[in-house]
User: Fold this.
Amino acid sequence: MSSANSRPGSLSAAEVFDQYCAYVNPGLAALVKFMGFDAVEESARGAIIRDADGNEYIDCLGGFGALSLGHHHPKVVAAVRHQLDRMPLSSKILLNPCQASLCQRLAAITPGDLQYSFICNSGAEAVEGALKLARLATGRTEIIGAIGGFHGKTFGALSASGRDIYRKPFEPLVPGFSHVPFGDTTAMRRAVTRDTAAVILEPIQGEAGVIIPPDDYLPEVREICDSAGALLILDEVQTGLGRTGALFACQHYGVAPDIMTLAKALGGGVIPVGAFVARPRLWEAFRHNPLLHSSTFGGNPLACAAALAAIDAVIEERLPERARDLGGRALRSLTQLQQRFPAAISDVRGRGLLIGVEFAHEDIAGLVIAGLAQRRIITAYTLNNPRVIRLEPPLVIEAEILDRVLSALGEAVQRTVGLLQDVPPAK
Assistant:
């Protein structure tokens, strides 16, 4: 056993793996090793990660959407270093200028009349706060989510999510939640009643396998909610801040929510930060007791400085437009790949640089991920649909690096199809 005082950077890959098995999660260690990702990460810039042996990997997972600005974005790092020397954490009593500036900035860039923000530490926390506000502001308790939706794994967020494999081990969950098929307005109209506090949806379902709704779906859901006096919560934790080719995915559909949740890319890939942003009339529920919902670390100056710099970088570097252009390029290439291997690839879909490649069987997807790992390209499947490999690279990825990824994916698919053809049928 290695010494407890060993510096992390001095440990070998075998020692780190053993520590994962003994102290982190042995199942996770086995899964990572099976997928071919058991190297030890050491440093990263942009879309490139370097391991302890000096090997370079192309990051096409992007921290599950958290690394839209890539690794170690200089503007965000500089802002965090500057704030670190001034005041990393807030007193929580005196006024916090970083938090005030971030909330003002979010009001300026979010759609509709969203104005007030609560700054927290993660996407799941943002969802928890949004659900609490919806019940508080409406006096109702029922929440409608979507089958296949993913909103986090804390109790409230998990109750809103729509896949049993993550829900059932922890039942009974928070009461008052139900789920309808995503994209089905008839089912939604039947489900929403005068007892419904809110409908919570991702504009594009990420973990369900990058599921894009019909163009009229969100506008119709908006109308359904308005007719019943229910709120619309849009979870933009994964899709927000340029990922889909617009600053927020709901803007593709011309819809503004009553409450929006944000996280992942909001921290600029440097500091975790989340937020839920709401319309002014809803925030009145917090006026008489502003401490009904609070967080010790939420809104800390270090995280707010990172978020402010991240927003500036997304806008100044025109990353939504970049995601739209590079995503279109990738989708055209992947569609051609599907046409070459129609028996292996069932579908290719996406918006911007949130792209899903669905395979005929999850085993094919697993073999392709392993093939990409051999070529030192990092990808993963979506949590609610293991047949779908997500391509979610940093929005700053260079076009030529993305082309290398697409070429390697083609090689991995071709190799996998060849391997499967060589396997004799079971007797």
Notes: The chain has two domains: 15-71+318-422, 74-316. The domain at 74-316 is CATH 3.40.640.10 (Aspartate Aminotransferase; domain 2).
